[in-house]
Amino acid sequence: MLIKDVVCPFCGCLCDDLDVEVENGRIIRGDNACTLGSKTMVGDDRLKAPIRRDGKRWTETTYDAAIEEAAQILLDADRPLLYGWSSTHGEAQTLGIHLAELIGGVVDNTSTVCHGPSILAIQEVGHPGCTLGQVKNRADLIIYWGCNPIDAHPRHMSRYTTYATGFFVKDAHRDRKVIVVDTRRNESADVATEFVQVEPGGDYAVLSALRAIVRGRGDVVPPSVSGVSREQLFRVAEMCKNAKFGAIFFGLGLTMTAGKNKNVRNAIELTDELNRHTKFIISPMRGHGNVYGTNEVFTWITGYPYAVDFSRGIAFYNPGETTAVDILRRGECDACLVVASDPAAHFPKACVEHLARIPVVQIDPHPNATTHICRLQIPGSVAGIDAAGTAYRMDGVPIRLKAVIETGVPNDTEILQKLYNRVREGKGE
Amino acid sequence: MTELLIKNACVFDPLNGIRGDIMDIAIRDGRIVDSVRDGSEVIDASGFLTLPGGIDSHSHVCGTKVNFGRYMSPEDMRAGRTARRGKMHVTSGYYVPTTYGNSYRYSTMGYTTVLEGAMAPLEARHTHEEFNATPHQDMLANTLFDGNWSIMEAVHAKDVKRAAAIVAWTLSSVRGFAIKLTNPGGTEAWGWGEDLTSIRDPVPNFNVTPAEIISTMISANELLHLPHSVHLHCNNLGKPGNYATTLETFGLVPDLNNNRQTLYATHVQFHAYGGSTWRDICSKADEITKSVNARPQIVMDMGQIMFGRTMTMTADGPMEFNLYCLHHNKWSNHDVELETGSGIIPVLYSKKSLVNCVMWAIGLELALLTKNPYQCLLATDNPNGAPFVKYPEIIGLLMSKRYRDEECSTLNNGFEQRTSISSLDREMDWNEIAIITRAGQARALGLAAEGKGHLAPGAEADLAIYPIRCDDVDPATEYRNVVEGFQKTRFTIKRGRVVARDGDVIVEGANATFWVNPTVPDEHNVANDPEFVKKFEEYYTVRMGNYPVQDVYLPRGRCIKTEADL
């Protein structure tokens, strides 16, 4: 059976034009998908049942028994952390937040180790952005800064930017220029009109130089800024000012290098400045399929996009204090629920060591690095494969993920609802 | 069957001509009935002021830009925090509260229905998700068509039926309630960083004018027999001298509907400025209300501002950028492909600012100079003019000349020469307040027929009982009691259930979402039109099959079907 217009849940592009071939309840092909999407849809290798650590071995258990044990772990905890959420659907995220609210826990999502600094910058200076279709239909200048879409978001260029034909951009090749800014020449740089190579840690200075030129104070710019020549800076600034519609996309090369949120702030303020000359937007390249949805759901329920601590009863937010990495590094947390992410693969060593010392329950369909340190793993179905639900694309467009196969595996919402109900009972409510 | 009897209520129900009668109200299964059995649950209203549930006909509470207003404002989230308590979730925020914050505060103020002022169709799913997390109000979504490419093409072809067909498909696909035009044409121009300056300027690349868009959409709206009229945010918002644009726009509007207005002009305070710069800005509320008093086909809302901090958020992207250039505060912008734009910046309305004082006066002047209270409704364009929790103060100001004079004495010297506020003696009565906060909204939105905004048998049992004894209070002098009374109901009743009591919400909410589904003949169904489908697939970044909002997002959807005259 061929199912059309399927949404790939893997990355923040949420491509919704996959043609998926299903045979005997398995996906055998995903046309239009990139390599990453194909692997997500087809090569899906999962745990068959909940497992619990029994001394040095794993034993299979039932969903009910696993949920009961998870509930007890959360009920016994003084400072529980509920982390992850970015690869599941919004309905499950909602329950996760309400669970944290119920037990006075900390709830945080994967932004904490990716675009958290972008959020901090936006909270300082705002965010001039747009949906990706605006870029596709109008943009004649694209800047990729500190990101490598060819590897990380393989269809970003063909669907939305470099190669996308739009209403006002009939011939993408001729009508559109691409600038890539990075510390090393990556594959994306090979297709760029202009490659700007910045010395590691030099992004902030380069952004400042561009702002000065755009503001008409190019006289203060020295012959070279963080490895970029004055001539090239002037050329790039002119390209920006002369564009009819420019779009900057940035990645962890800005958010997770020296300067962090201040880099992003500088890039946003460059965008603000360029809007006095022409039309310009800026947008983070979000990683997990529904990480932006996590920020949205967190925000309408708690007021904050991530790092929310309910231990005082109210929602309290102080990144650097209430962020998952900091709570673990300080050794504060005494139990952790991980949902739809893999902190053991991405967190600093000290954090993972602490996780290994405390009871960790993971709700995730796949064996991953976190499996090695958890006490209990409960596999749910996968949003976009055998579970339906809501996800938000990197530009804020909400898309419904489809269930294309039936597996009978409970979805994350069902698992979390049971867990929530059990914890609520346990608290005598 | 659940039954409830409210005894000794002092009822104002303007749509049914009831003015302060002491009476009992019987409720069965969520609706008002003539009588209930003996032994039903009884609430003693003790002679307190009892009104149909409040209706906000223009408020920004749910969806992409509202949530972005929260996202970028941890400073506001800190300003309004409450812990989980009883049936209430945690809340954060003062001027852009979390969804539960909005819902609880509206509910404790007696509001049971809220129209979200601006939903981009492409992002409708988001609005509906937040509607479900705003559980104590029935919700409706104004749907943005101001920069819709297909609509502008139909306007250019002078094809009203085509425009109507596109509206019908879009509203039913995104579960929208009404046509919203925000700075028509201007949001498309903003796609290139430009704006329009009059309703006769052509939209770049589309060769239509705002005037043509507005006129075509008014006709299309009536062809579809939609419950509400076109809902318009005029061009040139917030610019000195813009009253001329507003008057010219009002001049476009024919009188096409016997049951309601033909145009709803929203937050008109922001569109009633004289002068040519911020230095010589003055009120033109007199000219605007003269026009509205002569045109029963127009209803407006005040767009009142109140002093203090708040957040401006609108689909009017270029306006927000101008505001950013003025304030140099943080600025967000979010243009939506083929449809519309939006912008957000925080503002402080200060009594020390002459401009802000003039703005404050204009909103009140509009309400006081409009003869028929059904034509000027109370709203702040929440949160743009002020958060809705300020409504009780506005009620106080409209009911008391003394309160207005006291406020005026604290404002920037000089504003009084630019407005007529000090010379207006009108003081509204309870009936007029009931009109400008619920009956007028129900009529303007076309919801009276759905049982909203009145208390006749058959109506939905949405009520607010305020701790105010109308006979004992003189609003002209005891306005503080009035303000306090409207801040917290004694009881808020939603579909026959007590949902809030003395400032606390006491049950889980179960709201409904109203949407319209105009039936059009097959030959006018744009989903069958290969040209429409082709353009959709080429220029949107989502597939047409993934665009419509699924039923699962409206667990308690209430569809209003209409038959289109196409």
Question: What secondary-structure arrangement, pairings included, does this model have?
Answer:
The complex is a heterodimer of chains A (429) and B (566).
Chain A: E1 2-6, E2 18-23, E3 26-31, H1 35-42, E4 51-54, E5 57-60, H2 63-76, E6 80-84, H3 90-103, E7 106-109, H4 116-125, E8 128-130, H5 132-138, E9 141-145, H6 149-152, H7 156-159, H8 172-175, E10 177-182, E11 194-197, H9 203-214, E12 224-225, E13 228-229, H10 230-242, E14 245-250, H11 252-255, H12 261-274, E15 279-284, H13 291-302, E16 308-309, E17 316-317, H14 324-329, E18 335-339, H15 343-346, H16 349-357, E19 360-363, E20 376-378, E21 389-392, E22 398-401, H17 412-426
Parallel strand pairs in A: 6-7, 6-18, 9-10, 9-14, 10-11, 14-15, 18-19, 19-20
Antiparallel strand pairs in A: 1-2, 2-3, 4-5, 4-20, 7-16, 12-13, 16-17, 21-22
Helix pairs in contact in A: 2-17, 3-13, 3-17, 4-12, 9-10, 9-12
Chain B: E1 3-13, E2 18-28, E3 31-33, E4 41-44, E5 49-52, E6 54-59, H1 64-71, H2 74-77, H3 99-108, E7 111-119, H4 124-132, E8 138-144, H5 149-156, H6 160-174, E9 178-182, H7 186-189, H8 210-223, E10 230-233, H9 243-250, E11 263-265, E12 273-274, E13 282-283, H10 285-293, E14 298-301, E15 308-314, H11 317-327, E16 332-335, E17 343-349, H12 354-369, E18 376-377, H13 391-399, H14 401-408, H15 430-445, E19 463-466, H16 479-487, E20 491-494, E21 497-501, E22 504-505, E23 513-519, H17 530-539, E24 557-563
Helix pairs in contact in B: 5-6, 6-8, 9-10, 10-12, 13-14, 13-16
